Design the sequence.
């Protein structure tokens, strides 16, 4: 099947204050139509940077990007301004963690939705209004006509996030990118929004790339999971591969931290040490300094990618042995 998104050997580096920050270091993945890939990892693992690269949102001047990002067989890294404008919003849309930052406080939800729709479709304001109402209905916002007249601050956090999803979907994209879209919400609302995203995906056949640091959210959303560390995908598999047959010591630590995190309300804290300095990456495995199974050659040689099965691959010297 044709992939909706196909990323090959992507690198993203930022030039800042005379330093080169190597945020993404050779990432490859495909996402099919109707499929959700979850990118999971700690902050600084490269997941958000990867996601933003898919829409080419990084400031061009201080960023170096190599590899290829094909969406509908077109390489995003080679697009000109006009092609990028057509891509953003129309083919591909994004929802962020805090919708208040993305929604403009001085315009009503309706004004913003109608403007967004009309930017991407040549239709009348009235037709756009009808589409906006349909989009709010699709995300189960009650009395959508009345909601169009509301300002963002007049809605609850969960409703705002649903309105953002409606806004993102109102241009009828094929790809949805989501960066921690439910992290700011409380647990029950979080689950409702995730279930809603899944339902919309089924209905619309969306390809979704979903970034999170939370295994619970990953379990709810994922068909496949890519575990990121030090700007690399260190393990990728189906949600079943990752939950039940994880091989990479970092993935295993993540899964363990979840069980602790549930009690402490602070996931990921239980992995000792801190992530590598992206301006000064170690020459070997990026996880070597924190790995409880580290071997002598881990510090000097980057582990190769080993295929465990058709759906499952891992970058660790243990799996290669
Ligand atoms: Fe640990 Fe070595 Fe595997 Fe890296 S390559 S995760 S240091 S065992
Ligand atoms: Mg982030």
Sequence:
């Amino acid at each position: 099947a044709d992939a909706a998104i196909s990323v090959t050997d992507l690198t993203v580096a930022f030039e800042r204050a005379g330093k080169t920050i190597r945020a993404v270091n050779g990432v490859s993945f495909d996402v099919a139509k109707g499929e959700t890939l979850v990118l999971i990892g700690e902050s600084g693992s490269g997941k958000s940077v990867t996601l933003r690269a898919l829409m080419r949102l990084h400031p061009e001047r201080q960023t170096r990007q190599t590899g290829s990002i094909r969406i509908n067989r077109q390489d995003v890294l080679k697009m000109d301004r006009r092609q990028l404008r057509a891509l953003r919003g129309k083919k591909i849309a994004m929802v962020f963690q805090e919708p208040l930052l993305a929604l403009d406080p001085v315009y009503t939800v309706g004004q913003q939705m109608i403007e967004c729709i009309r930017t991407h479709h040549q239709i009348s304001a009235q037709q756009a209004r009808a589409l906006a109402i349909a989009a709010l209905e699709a995300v189960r916002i009650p009395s959508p006509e009345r909601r169009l007249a509301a300002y963002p601050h007049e809605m609850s956090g969960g409703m705002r996030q649903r309105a953002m999803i409606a806004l993102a979907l109102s241009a009828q994209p094929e790809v949805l990118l989501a960066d921690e879209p439910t992290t700011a919400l409380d647990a029950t609302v979080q689950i409702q929004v995730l279930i809603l995203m899944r339902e919309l995906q089924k209905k619309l056949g969306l390809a979704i790339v979903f970034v999170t640091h939370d295994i619970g959210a990953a379990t709810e959303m994922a068909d496949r999971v890519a575990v990121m560390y030090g700007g690399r995908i260190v393990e990728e598999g189906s949600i079943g591969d990752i939950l039940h047959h994880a091989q990479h010591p970092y993935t295993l630590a993540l899964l363990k931290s979840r069980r602790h995190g549930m009690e402490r309300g602070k996931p990921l804290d239980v992995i000792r040490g801190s992530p590598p300095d992206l301006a000064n990456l170690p020459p070997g495995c990026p996880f070597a300094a924190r790995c409880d199974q580290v071997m002598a050659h881990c510090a000097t040689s980057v582990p190769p990618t080993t295929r465990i099965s058709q759906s499952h691959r891992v970058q660790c010297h243990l799996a290669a042995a």
